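Re-running DUF4034 domain-containing protein to confirm reproducibility after the cluster update. Everything else is unchanged from the original entry.
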Amino acid sequence: MWSFKKRPDDVLKINNYLYDPGAERLDQALGERDWPTIRDILTTAAPEQLMYYMDFVASAKGLEEWIPDVIRAEPHSTLPLLARGARAVHWAWEARGSGTSDTVSREQWDVWFQRLKLAENCLDEVTDRDPGCAEAWHYLVILGRARQLPVEERWRRFTRLIEIDPTHLFGHEQMLQNLMPKWSGSTEAMFDFARTRAAACPGTNIPILVVQAHLEHRRSEGGNKHLRRNDVAGEIYAAAHDSFWHEGYRRSLLTPLVWNHFAYGLTIGRFFREACAVYDLIGDDWVRSAPWGSVDRFVELRDWARDEADDPVADEG
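Result of re-run:
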């Protein structure tokens, strides 16, 4: 049997901070509006940490209320502008909501575009003053999709980002979103990007794009039946070997995000023993919300994979 440890209370929890003490301190400081602590954490972060930390900044409700005072107090620093721009992107989505366009009111659209313009202005100023700021380009890639800019401009922003940081994971994920059919892209463009960038970045986190492209494509291709196709499951398996199973791979802060996606794809694709090896890496400590949606779904698929690896008789709907 596939062994795994259990917590004393036998309850798995989503790992929200990746056991990074800076992330937890940052989240607390954002809640307390403690800019000196926020500034110290962000300015001393390594590039991958900063990418991860900026997601907390962008999601920090209420930051839009007090960050203008910081900008006025620190006119020579681009960091408060970056924080305001990143936050404005998420703030715009909060106004729009996650529904389809026909569920958004005229008033919501007005607020959406106002906040997107605020984000663009802040981030443009950051890149004018600090052209090498990868995080500003990352959020400009998101804005390219949100504002439905021409595809050439979306590519320009992404190209500038990877000139600065060739394996910027979140930026790659956002460009993949830009190329999806639901954002005026196409299935062909989405898969070409995922495969091309995965091939260009072996031994990194970037081959996760292959899994993510297939997870998106299954929406219009029969759900999980798409992931069970031999060619699809085989491509996901090969991508895992190009990523965290590659001989040149070095574990990083964001490695657990990659494990979770590949565990999901390998399980649905019926690579059960390989999936179990990834579940052993995840253990009890590295469960993330994506792509499972819930801890219950993670446990369901993990246990199914382990049962199948030992005695392949069960099926999963």
